[in-house]
Each structure stands twice: as C-alpha cells, then as structure tokens.
Amino acid sequence: MSYPANLRYTKDHEWISLEGDIATIGITEFAQRELGDIVYVEVETIGKALVAGAVFGTVEAVKTVSDLFLPVAGSIQELNPELANQPELVNSDPYGEGWMVKMKVDNPADVDALLDAAGYEAVVG
C-alpha cells in the first residue's frame, strides 16, 4: 500500500494535505481497503467550526458505516462534489480525486504534529 510522504496521517486513518491554511482531507488507502466498496459519503458539517477529533461525516460501504474524524481544528469549507455521483473515487484514487473535504485550519502548525508516512505505516503494519 502507498502512503505519500507529502501527507500527514491520523491513527483514525484520515490523511491531510495543507496549502497555506486550507487543508484537503480524505481517508487512506488502508482505510478504503478495510471498508470495501464505498457507496456513499455524507458530510453535514459544511460551514461548521469543529475541534480536532470531532466527527465531520460518515462513509458508507456495502457492509458498514464508519465515522470520519477531523485531524485538526477548523471549519469545513467544501465537500468534494464528485463524490455525490462517484463515491467509488474514494476506492480508486483515495489520495487524489477521492478527497472528501476542504477545511480552513485554525492552527496550521497542528498539522505538523500528526503522523508522517513512516509513522502511519508503523500504526497499520
């Protein structure tokens, strides 16, 4: 499995990419493989300020529903519009077209405290 070195990761299997104070968030390749075929992504927190670790949405697979946890504090700005008609993008391209949300980060330095690729790989084995 791949864990791009330019991203940061959480133990809950989310990844985050930061540009300025705007972050893009999705789930890792490991997470999407564990869940199986993704059929729906629900995010009802657009425009809301949330703390790190808060549930910002859910991802539904054929056999299960899983919560999505915010890696750092901030406000959800946007849901990936492609996921409404193509939730399988999370499976086919988890680090690219399968991103889930964009958010304005309260403190960009918080991203540095998350796991790097090697740290995340050690968590998932």
UniProtKB/TrEMBL annotation:
Belongs to the GcvH family. Its cofactor is (R)-lipoate. This is Glycine cleavage system H protein. The glycine cleavage system is composed of four proteins: P, T, L and H. It comes from the Bacteria. InterPro entries: 2-oxoA_DH_lipoyl-BS (IPR003016), Biotin_lipoyl (IPR000089), GCV_H (IPR002930), GCV_H/Fam206 (IPR033753), GCV_H_sub (IPR017453), Single_hybrid_motif (IPR011053). The modification N6-lipoyllysine is found at K63. Signal peptide: none annotated. Binds 1 lipoyl cofactor covalently. Residues 22-104 form the Lipoyl-binding domain. Pfam families: GCV_H. The glycine cleavage system catalyzes the degradation of glycine. The H protein shuttles the methylamine group of glycine from the P protein to the T protein. Keywords: Lipoyl.
